[in-house]
Design brief:
Elements: H1 7-15, H2 19-40, H3 44-60, H4 70-128, H5 132-142, H6 148-155, H7 159-177, H8 179-185
Length: 186
Amino acid sequence: MDTLYTDKELIQLLKLGNKSALDEIYKRFHGVLYSHAYRRLPDREEVRDILQEIFIYLWNNRKTVEISNLSAYLYTSVRSRILNAYRNKKVRERYTQSLQDFINSGADTVEEHIREKELVALVEQEVSALPPQMRLIFEMSRFQDKSHKEIAEELNISPQTVRTQVRNALRVLRLKLGASIFTLFF
């Protein structure tokens, strides 16, 4: 095809399905469009993809696309697709960050759950290490929510003995577990 065709003539030939018109448009505009796009989006592969999409769209929609100024149409198409690329990139980044936050929060939850189980096991171990009578009174007081009077009646001992045993158990556990863990549980 002769390169002496005007842009308007190329558009008319393109609308008639002349493949050589598309080739000529490609030769005429590809270099400047690539340079224009690359200044705004310095990713060679993405720029190539954008230009390819524009020329494919132009060919596939040649009968219906309304073009009064070929150069303006092509530059506007490039700008529009670059903006879409940035928008899509931001959406992907937000999605990736959201997914990462979810994964991180899930990992924190799992870690917290594991730590909590370990702490409960440690408390249970220290409670079970108490002397038998002290452990029984402490468990009735803290885990069965019985009053000192109820424990005293059930075990046939004085309420003062129950109070002393609970106080001693708490003192031992505070020493064994440390103040910070102790306050979490008691």
